[in-house]
């Protein structure tokens, strides 16, 4: 049998002699890749191109050469190959698409969009391949424009793509997320070829958390997303058995161990772990990072293992070979997550904590870490995992860097002597229900302003227009420009009261506000994301600022806004309690976390490892999608179980469901 070097040598000779056909060339490159000689592929292509300059398929070979050079990280050489391929055959659409990707990777987003636009203008013929190339070009352009904060244009391109093929879950996810980020209400906007059910089923679980306070629907959507995006769990290797005895080997899987909201929250956790109880492995699956926080995580973990360069099988194998007993998924359904790794079950026990605020609805997450407020006992049926609880769910960083100098109110565009309400949550968390409540509050507190984190100019203008339509002067919405985190924290001192969003409330942002001495008024609903801020406010010693109904939220905000002395008293109370409150007691949180890990491992050793409860979730999804959640605010429904029983009773007249443990329907299993 010929060696890979012999195969390469023979192919080079034939290429020079113009005796290597294009199919043989491609087969040879595939053989080289499979034998571990991928580095030789660009050389073989270059030889063939040099000696076959008149070949009618030269443009296609140049394209393949560009792909090989891209894979090798030689972007400038790859760019030259693709530009030459387009010059030889201007109708060859894949070259435009890949050339645009290279421009994007080189930091030239504008040139990338130019290439994709050029491809779109050339695709007039209605053929299967033309439609496919057009969809790709539209999606690539939309993604690049979204990165560049050109949200409105990106949305238009995504809609064009989905009009051609509505069965694109990723495009639907981006479309819904874009509309949320722009405060485009209604968020779910059907069109002639894009129906409402497709949009709802394609929504990401993270977007669903901001869309409605309906934990049963969110569970059903999470399970649907898991099935459609990840499919059945892959066949698994026989991983080495995780040994018992000694400190528990805990693996933290995260893309966010860097300058990121989750990174800020996790700052102290690794260093506070008792090494007699746990051995800390950090598996980093994010982009290359060189910031100080990333370096901190590298230094405080016992083992810091980058896995971004590994495929799912390779990353899972590394975790298993490290003997991890409990894998803590700090991403869940968030950007850059590696759920394909988790699906391979590289550890005997898998827990969901912190990164994604909700249930995973997956067959491989055994536990969810929460607290008594976020998931009270009666809400456990809304979660597929077994719920374990900390004293307070969310860690915090007691050593935040805060800029020494803060702007004055005048410099920030705020009134000197009026009440400043603020909310620095992302615009994607602002629903029309929340915005209308804020405007009711402003209308009843004369002179007050609402200080928001600025979005795009179009989004800011959209919110001001909405205020004007509700009779509130546009200038009473003040937008703060984005700043580096130390400077952003310093300006919190200018605000009097933080008004939380719902159903997706403040998490890291709440911790920041309370750390900086700004009290938070929040409305706790029923879903996980809607109750985190209430947990944090209670842990800071402010249960009186956690409201249970929209009416209470508005009335409490108005009363506080009309009573500056009470606002000052709240701030003073927060200052006094800050160093002793539960919220910032990180040693206690980490000790409690270690106790939960021991409980998980004891369950596993005793054969009590919980089985995720996924019963009837397709049926719950079917019924939950019938409500228009932008017309009916489920959070305001007093009898939530009754609301769902009514939905299910309609279905059971035609197709009875198997019993389950939700809504008082006893399970038979």
Brief sketch in words of this structure:
By secondary structure, the protein is of the alpha/beta class. Helix 2 (22-34) runs antiparallel to helix 3 (41-51) and helix 6 (93-105) packs antiparallel against helix 7 (109-122).
**Radius of gyration, rounded?**
28 Å
Biggest β-sheet: strands ordered side by side in the sheet: 3-2-1-4-5-6-7
The proportion of strand residues reads 5-15%
Low-confidence stretches: none
Can you describe this structure?
- The protein is of the alpha/beta class and 669 residues long.
- It is 48% helix and 9% strand.
- The chain has four domains: 4-209, Tetratricopeptide repeat domain (Serine Threonine Protein Phosphatase 5, Tetratricopeptide repeat), CATH 1.25.40.10; 248-398 and 587-605, 3-Layer(aba) Sandwich (Rossmann fold), CATH 3.40.50.11380; 420-579, Rossmann fold, CATH 3.40.50; 617-664, no CATH class.
- The strands form two sheets. Strands 3-2-1-4-5-6-7 form a seven-stranded parallel sheet, covered by helices on one side. Strands 10-9-8-11-12-13 form a six-stranded parallel sheet, with helices on both faces.
- α1 (4-16) runs antiparallel to α2 (22-34), α3 packs antiparallel against α4 and α13 crosses α27 (617-624).
- The model has no long low-confidence stretch (mean pLDDT 92).
């Amino acid at each position: 049998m010929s060696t890979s070097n012999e195969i390469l040598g023979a192919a080079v000779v034939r290429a020079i002699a113009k005796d290597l056909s294009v199919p043989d060339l491609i087969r040879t490159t595939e053989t080289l890749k499979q034998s571990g000689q991928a580095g030789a592929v660009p050389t073989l292509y270059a030889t063939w191109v040099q000696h076959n300059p008149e070949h009618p398929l030269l443009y296609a070979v140049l394209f393949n050469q560009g792909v090989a050079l891209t894979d090798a990280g030689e972007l400038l050489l790859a760019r030259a190959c693709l530009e030459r391929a387009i010059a030889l055959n201007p109708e060859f659409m894949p070259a435009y698409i890949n050339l645009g990707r290279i421009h994007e990777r080189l930091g030239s987003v504008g040139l990338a969009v130019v290439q994709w636009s050029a491809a779109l203008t050339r695709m007039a013929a209605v053929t299967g391949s033309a439609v496919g190339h057009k969809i790709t070009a539209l999606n690539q352009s939309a993604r690049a424009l979204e990165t560049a904060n050109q949200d409105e244009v990106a949305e238009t391109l995504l809609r064009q793509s989905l009009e051609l093929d509505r069965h694109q879950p990723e495009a639907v996810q981006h479309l819904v997320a874009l509309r949320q980020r722009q405060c485009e209400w209604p968020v779910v906007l059907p069109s002639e070829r894009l129906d409402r059910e497709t949009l709802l089923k394609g929504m990401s679980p993270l977007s669903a958390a901001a869309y409605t306070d309906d934990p049963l629907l969110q569970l059903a959507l999470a399970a649907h997303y898991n099935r459609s995006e990840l499919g059945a769990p892959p066949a698994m290797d026989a991983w080495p058995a995780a040994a018992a005895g000694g400190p528990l080997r805990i693996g933290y899987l995260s893309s966010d161990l860097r300058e990121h909201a989750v990174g800020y929250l996790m700052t102290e956790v690794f260093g506070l772990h008792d090494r007699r109880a746990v051995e800390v492995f950090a598996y980093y699956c994010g982009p290359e990072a060189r910031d100080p926080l990333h370096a901190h995580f590298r230094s405080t973990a016992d083992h810091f293992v980058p896995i971004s360069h590994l495929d799912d099988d390779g990353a899972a194998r590394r975790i298993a070979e490290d003997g991890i007993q409990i894998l803590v998924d700090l991403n869940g359904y968030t950007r850059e997550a590696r759920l394909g790794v988790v699906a391979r079950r590289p550890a005997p026990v898998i827990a969901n904590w912190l990164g994604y605020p909700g249930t995973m609805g997956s067959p491989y997450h055994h536990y969810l870490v929460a607290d008594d407020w976020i998931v009270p006992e009666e809400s456990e049926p809304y979660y597929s995992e077994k719920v374990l609880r900390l004293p307070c769910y969310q860690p915090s960083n007691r050593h935040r860097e805060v800029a020494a100098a803060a702007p004055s109110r005048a410099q920030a565009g705020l009134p000197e002597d009026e009440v400043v309400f603020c909310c620095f949550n992302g615009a994607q968390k602002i629903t029309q229900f929340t915005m209308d409540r804020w405007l009711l509050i402003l209308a009843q507190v004369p002179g007050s302003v609402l200080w928001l984190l600025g979005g795009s100019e179009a989004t800011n203008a959209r919110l001001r227009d909405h205020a004007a339509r509700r009779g509130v002067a546009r200038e009473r919405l003040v937008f703060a420009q984005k700043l580096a985190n130390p400077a952003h924290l310093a300006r919190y001192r200018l605000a009097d009261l933080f008004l939380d969003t719902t159903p997706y409330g403040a998490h890291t942002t709440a911790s920041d506000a309370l750390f900086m001495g700004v009290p938070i008024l929040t409305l706790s609903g029923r879903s996980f994301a809607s109750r985190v801020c209430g947990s944090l406010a209670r842990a800071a010693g402010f249960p009186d600022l956690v409201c249970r109904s929209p009416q209470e939220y508005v009335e409490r905000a108005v009363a506080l806004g009309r009573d500056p002395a009470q606002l000052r008293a709240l701030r003073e109370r927060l200052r006094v309690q800050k160093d002793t409150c539960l919220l910032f007691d990180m040693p206690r949180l980490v000790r409690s976390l270690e106790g939960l890990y021991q409980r998980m491992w004891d369950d596993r050793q005793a054969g009590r490892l919980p089985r995720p409860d996924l019963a009837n979730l397709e049926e719950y999804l079917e019924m939950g999608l019938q409500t228009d959640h932008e017309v009916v605010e489920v959070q305001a429904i007093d009898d939530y179980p009754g609301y769902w029983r009514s939905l299910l009773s309609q279905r059971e007249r035609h197709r009875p469901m198997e019993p389950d443990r939700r809504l008082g329907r006893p399970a038979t299993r």
